[in-house]
Design brief:
Distance between the termini: 28 Å
Number of helices: 10
Strand content: 5-15%
Order of helices and strands: EEHHHHHHHHHH
CATH superfamily: MFS general substrate transporter like domains
Largest sheet: 2 strands, antiparallel
Strand order of the largest sheet: 1-2
Number of strands: 2
Radius of gyration: 22 Å
CATH class: Mainly Alpha
């Protein structure tokens, strides 16, 4: 059994759009706690309720998928945002040339979501969890390969890590939302989708902002002139060695975050599977207790 199938999560969007759930969906929020959908499936019956739960009760929330998307935010979205700057600073590429290089990473995201869905539908041995683990492994490998970035590295060597990152992002993109929303009834899908988007987009925002802050701080620590440090951080050619060194340090942080996130996903999934098995076999627990 897939430990996340039927495990509801949510998304949240804050705004004035009338299509976005606001007061009604969050009416039970208190002390800034976010409401989550709690669902447990037994046989053909599914009981769903909306309640604010403490953050420690993460297993019941099935947040493994959310953690996985946040890992992808750090491993993919940050590179998508800032690697064009590295292409300019380290190799002196123009904006147009940098865009063409980035297509190597973004093109798989357009075509692979449908492939991921087909693999799950046609092969019962491939579960959504399996593809999520494959994506996380590819994300880690692609970012690890970027540690070798240097001014002397031929651009052709970037093809492999960029393809790995694109495949890792695109492969689970077609089913993650569906898996997260599968146990939520239709009349609650709007609020659930909002909460899920809130957590996912919030992770991307933190990743992109944090990447810029850390990179800028590391450049400023190596360059005494504040004006020059600003130009180096913004990708001005001429200081390739400094930028490449700082880029490598930031990549080490990305790899650490990816490793911790992947371990968290595995632990959450393992605990969820154990909880599902226990809930589906209450007779075993009862006989054990009697003995």
């Amino acid at each position: 059994m897939d430990g996340w199938t039927g495990s509801p999560t949510g998304q949240g969007v804050v705004g004035s759009n009338p299509a976005v759930p606001t007061a009604e969906g969050f009416s039970q929020v208190s002390d800034l706690r976010v409401p989550f959908f709690i669902a447990r499936t037994r046989g053909s019956r599914s009981k769903v309720r909306l309640s604010p739960r403490p953050a420690i009760d993460v297993v019941d929330l099935g947040v493994g998928l959310i953690v996985a998307t946040d890992v992808e935010a750090f491993g993919f979205v940050t590179i998508l945002t800032y690697f064009p700057v590295a292409l300019s600073a380290i190799w002196g590429l123009s904006a147009g040339a940098s865009g063409l290089v980035m297509l190597i990473m973004t093109a798989p995201v357009l075509f692979l979501p449908s492939l991921g869905v087909r693999l799950i539908a046609r092969n019962h041995r491939i579960s959504p969890t399996t593809l999520v683990y494959v994506a996380l492994a590819g994300m880690f490998a692609g970012n690890a390969f970027l540690l070798i970035v240097s001014p002397s590295l031929p651009l052709a060597w970037l093809v492999l890590p960029l393809v790995l990152l694109g495949v890792s992002m695109g492969l689970p993109l077609g089913f993650v939302d569906g898996e997260a929303m599968g146990a939520v009834p239709a009349h609650l899908s709007g609020t659930a989708s909002g909460v899920f988007n809130l957590l996912r987009l919030g992770g991307e925002t933190v990743a992109v902002g944090g990447y810029a802050a850390v990179l800028g701080a590391l450049v400023a620590a190596r360059v005494d002139d504040p004006d020059l440090a600003h130009r180096v951080a913004s990708g001005e050619p001429g200081n390739a060695g400094i930028y490449a060194c700082v880029f490598g340090h930031v990549q080490l942080a990305i790899l650490a975050i990816s490793a911790v996130g992947t371990i968290a996903v595995a632990l959450l999934h393992r605990t969820r599977v154990g909880a599902d098995r226990a809930s589906q076999d209450p007779g075993t627990l009862a006989s054990t207790t009697t003995r």
